[in-house]
Amino acid sequence: MSKLEHTPQTTGPQGGVSSRSGIASTERPAFGLPGIPFFIVCLALGALALWLLIAEQFTLGAPLLALTLFLAAGFYIVQPNQAKVLTLFGRYVGTERRNGVYWTNPLTIRKNTSLRIRNFNSERLKVNDLMGNPIEIAAVIVWRVVDTARAVFDVEDYGQFVAIQAETALRHLASQYPYDNFAEEGLSLRGNADEIAQALGQELAARLGHAGVEVLEARLSHLAYSPEIAGAMLQRQQASAIIAARQQIVQGAVGMVEMALRELSDQKIVELDEERKAQMVSNLLVVLTSERGTQPVVNAGSLY
Asked: What is the pLDDT of residues 63-81, one digit of tens each?
């Protein structure tokens, strides 16, 4: 009894299973002759064919004219920052990146692929951050095609592939970090823009590399709490700001009171007992930490 044979399988980069027959294509140079010299040759052949036809040499003129027309179908033009992907009978034969006019096998199919830098501005996505708060987030991604074979043959539509993978990476990124870190420990989406942009770029590079796409830059273009919790979170931010300001005011006031008592004691302007010092400290703190201007009361009598 014979053993069952099976195709060896390997685990893909995203955890999926792929067969060895589905190895991704890699870009390679295509065969192409300079177009101008070959165009002159075709013109000479065409002129010779017409002369033979005029001379009624149909046995030579007709096949030569047909050959000239067939060869003329092999010319193509490559614009700046564009490439031609060539296939012959369903087989990838190479990519032409050089600008200008070239000639190749007329039976090849030539598909144009842009190598220009592109911007993708994602829509505003509503996701939950690490703390479970609903937020709105969007990103701007700068990308370009660097491997035309992968971009054309490994994905159905590389432009749509970039859009879907960018949205997926953005959702995953938002779930890994909190919107704001009130404890001031670790990274946050709002407080660490450069680090978040670097993390987003690295994740996009890993996802889009399978399509021959290079990510030049990725940054958040919109970040905000969802409308249903925006009011509550604004109050929380305002409260945190007020507390931080109060702490600084109190620290400054205590330092000024300490300096005033020390100066009075060093210069021996007046001798104060503990009770009068406590009263002076209380009055100075009220004056220095009050939100409104205080009305001083002048004591015209004795200090004691």
From this structure: 888 988 999 999 999 999 9
